[in-house]
Amino acid sequence: MLVKLLEGSPEVLSLIEYSPFPVDQPPRYIRALRYKYSFTKWSNTSSEEWWRREYKGIYVRPFSLNPPPPPPPTTQPSTTTTTSKNNHQHPTPSSPSAKSSSSSKKATMK
């Protein structure tokens, strides 16, 4: 149903009482949040609060039918290395080469 909302399906839009989006311009992104609803006590109905809701988390993370392209690569990747006692350089976890060190082939640095 979320995909149909992003596509602007008239059948799905007819299920919604009010849509802030024009029929010819459906939303680009959509997400779903989860709430727990419970009725208020009878004594609170005089303030026109019939229920209360409690945020429980993200049900569906934001997504799009046409996600934006990835950012262009940087011209010079930043690498941070540390030197151990025996002068071997080891990449720190924040550097790009540290992520590849978990593969079966380890790169050696001179």
UniProtKB/TrEMBL annotation:
Cellular component, GO annotation: endoplasmic reticulum membrane
Domain Lipase maturation factor 1/2 C-terminal: 1-59
Domain of life of the native organism: Eukaryota
Bias type Pro residues, positions: 65-75
Protein's GO biological process: protein maturation
Pfam assignment, any one: LMF1_C
InterPro entries: LMF, LMF1/2_C
Region span, Disordered: 62-110
Keyword Membrane set for record: no
Low complexity bias (residue ranges): 91-110
Keywords (A to Z) from UniProt: Glycoprotein
PANTHER family the record matches: LIPASE MATURATION FACTOR, LIPASE MATURATION FACTOR 2
Name of the protein this chain belongs to: Lipase maturation factor 2
Organism: Heterostelium pallidum (strain ATCC 26659 / Pp 5 / PN500)
Lineage: Eukaryota, Amoebozoa, Evosea, Eumycetozoa, Dictyostelia
